[in-house]
Amino acid sequence: QVQLVESGGGLVQAGGSLRLSCAASTRTSSIIAMGWYRQPPGKQRELVATIGNGGNTNYADSVKGRFAISRDNLEMSLQMDSLKPEDTAVYYCNARIYGGATFWGQGTQVTVSS
From the centroid of its chain, how far is CA 55? Predict the structure, then answer.
């Protein structure tokens, strides 16, 4: 089992920046990858960025060059710059362990005003 707690969401004007953080805790599971997903209002949850144990990263095309994911063991962050109104969503932290099981945080709201 993995517990994930996000923080850092909020309201920001277009062009501004926010930094999201995710703290993972586990007693027995080995995390092999972590990531951020988001769910815009009225839409399905979508990938934002992922990072593996080796530091390999993957980004959605819509955030490339604006967002940066980083990780230090069980702490993960998402630096979001040049935010746009279409980045408004609930952002979720995700962790995947050996065996394929995935876990989700409770989500944090990011609102970008125009």
Answer: 15
**What is the pLDDT, as a whole number, of residue 28?**
67
- Quick check: helix, strand or coil at residue 87? helix
Residues of the chain above pLDDT 90, percent:
89
Report the candidate in 34, 40, 47 with the shortest Cα–Cα distance to residue 5: 34
Average pLDDT of the residues in 33-38: 97
CB 24 within 8 A of CB 83: no
Cα of 90 vs its chain's centroid, Å = 10
How far, in Å, CA of 7 to CA of 22, rounded? 6
